Amino acid sequence: MKDIKKKGNQTVVTEFIFLGFSNHPELQGLLFLVFLVIYLATLLGNLLILTAIRINPVLHTPMYYFLSNLSFLDICYTSTTVPIMLVNFFREKKTITYEGCLSQVFFLVTFAGSEGVLLGAMAYDRFIAICYPLRYPVLMSKQVYAYLAAGSWLSGLVNSLTHTGLTTTLTLCGPNQISHFLCDIPLLLKLSCSDTSVNEFILYVSSATIGLSPCLFTAVSYILIISAILKIQSSQGRKKAFSTCASHLTVVVIFFGTANFNYDQPTSGYSLNVDILVSVLFCIVTPMLNPIIYSLRNKEVKVALRKLCEGYILPSDSSVQIHS
Question: What domains sit in the chain, N to C, each tagged with a CATH number?
Answer without folding.
Answer: 4-310 (1.20.1070.10)
